[in-house]
Amino acid sequence: MENRFYNAFDAASFGGRRTSDYRNPFQIDRDRIIHAHAFRKLQSKTQVFLSGEYDFYRTRLTHSIEVSQIGRSICHFLRTRGGPLKADFYIDSDLVEAVCLAHDLGHPPFGHSGERTLQELMMKWGGFEGNAQTLHLLTETIFQNESGVRGMRPTRALLDGVLKYKLLFGEWARPPQNHFLYDAQRVYRDFVFDGAAIPRPLRQGEALNQFKSIECQIMDWADDAAYSLNDIVDGVKAGFLTVEKIEDWAHDQTIGPAEQGHLDRLLQAIRTDRLEGVFGARIGGFIQACRLRERENFMAAKTNRYRYELVVDEVAQREALFFKQMANDIIFESPQLQQLEHKARRVLFDLWDAIWRNYVEKGPRVINILPPQVGRLIDSAKTRPAKARRICDYLSGLTDGTAVRIYRRLFDPEFGSFRDLS
Question: Which domain holds residue 39?
Answer without folding.
Answer: 1-339
